[in-house]
Amino acid sequence: MRIRATVAALTGTLALSALAVPAAQAADGPSSAPRLAAKAAQGANAGATKITKVSVNGGKDVVVGTSNKVKFKIAVTATDPSGIAGGSAFLYHGSDIDHADGVLIPDDLNGKCKVVNATTSTCTLDVVADPKTDLYTNGLAGSGWKLYAAADGNEGGSAEGEKFKSDASIQRYAKLTTNASPEPVKKGKTITVTGALTRANWETSKYAGYTGQSVKLQYKKKGASSYTTVKTVKSDSKGNLKTTVKASADGYFRYVFAGTSTTPAVTSTSDFIDVR
Prior knowledge:
Mean pLDDT: 87
Helix content: 10-25%
Number of helices: 3
CATH class of the largest domain: Mainly Beta
Oligomer: single chain
Low-confidence stretches: 1-7, 13-45
Number of domains: 2
Radius of gyration: 25 Å
């Protein structure tokens, strides 16, 4: 399977990085690259090294469209009485690594570590999500991503875990539009407010309607400071929105979508209506 082969190759690369220690560095002390080969063999933490926190994109969801690559960070915080020499991590989608159907791999498998105190460091890794190659199916959207993370202490301790829960979801970028007509309109007459809710389809690299979703229609009178919800509209089989309201005064209409586990919240650009 392509993904399993990728994970196997990744684990091998990480293991090699642990062995590729420059002679001068080896003389001075342990490698700053996580010794994942040893950890994979042990399958448990060794020594007093502990991974205390992992975070993806600072806890904010990673939202990916149909073409643009999205860069984000993974942070691994670890502690050891001797201090932390290095840390590494990657994201995978699935119940476990052996059954992963998606992976998001850092550009550099050796994290850049910043000392928090004498025993603790936070190591960060840059990851790029490419919808053209990494997110090949819409089934990868949502909160089903987990983290494999590892860290090394300065005096030989190490820690590893493959089922850290990601605090951020990988989501499909959404778009929302609003159009109120006719304009101008006489007071008391009917206004038709249309729009469309679409989201990225990673399988076709196009945007498609997000169907059967509840979307709020909001209105703000000219000169007012805030919007109020007029009604809730459901998107049709193509993601289109349509409803009617009575014209009362000059103001702005907009649609607001609260988001789902796979798709972020989105608010349309407002459309001004001239009531006479």
